[in-house]
Design brief:
The chain has five helices and no strands. It is mainly α. It has one domain. The longest helix has 27 residues, at 4-30. The chain is globular and about 45 Å long. It starts with a helix and ends in a 6-residue tail after the last helix. The structure holds protoporphyrin IX containing FE. Residues 8, 11-12, 15, 52-53, 56-57, 59-60, 63, 65, 76-77, 80, 83, 114-115, 118-119 line the site of protoporphyrin IX containing FE.
Length: 126
């Protein structure tokens, strides 16, 4: 049986792997590297991100978080959607390299915001 703290460790590990992978793919995008087209480079982020999402959902259910702290969780999910959209512009849909680079930097900022929410469990506080 998987304990909650183990699931949380998997979740955190996937978050860090996801970030590292996104940084590396962004660098390859800027350098127009052919590595970006490799099959494992295309598939592995989906695997990591699926485990990240599933482990998050399992924790939400086990901790019954939605009924107790809806604020930060909703913000996290909305920020995740923004991150996915910006990420797809950065690595695929952006028409020029400048557009893709701007989207990549914006995605990284949104990722930092998601980490902020995760660690401090609040939506914003500068
Ligand atoms: C890019 C996406 C995500 C990142 C980078 C991320 C990151 C993290 C991190 C670093 C923690 C540990 C915080 C700490 O204990 O200090 C955490 C906890 C958690 N995350 Fe995520 N997460 C992401 C997506 C999600 C999603 C989509 C969900 C829900 C469906 C979710 C639900 C949770 C829950 C429930 C916790 C535990 C909170 C607690 O211990 O009270 N996360 N997340």
């Amino acid at each position: 049986m998987l304990t909650l703290s183990f699931i949380k460790q998997i979740h955190i590990a996937c978050a860090l792997i996801s970030l590292a992978g996104f940084v590396v793919r962004g660098v390859w995008m800027i350098r127009a590297s052919e590595l970006l087209q490799r099959r494992w480079v295309i598939i592995s982020p989906h695997v990591v991100d699926t485990v990240l999402l599933l482990s998050g959902i399992v924790m939400v259910v086990q901790l019954r978080i939605y009924s107790t702290h809806p604020g930060w969780l909703s913000a996290k999910i909305i920020a995740l959607l923004v991150y996915i959209i910006l990420g797809s512009i950065a690595l695929k849909r952006g028409k020029t390299r400048v557009q893709r680079t701007i989207a990549w930097v914006a995605s990284l900022s949104v990722f930092a915001y998601i980490l902020w929410i995760a660690v401090y469990r609040e939506t914003w506080s500068f």
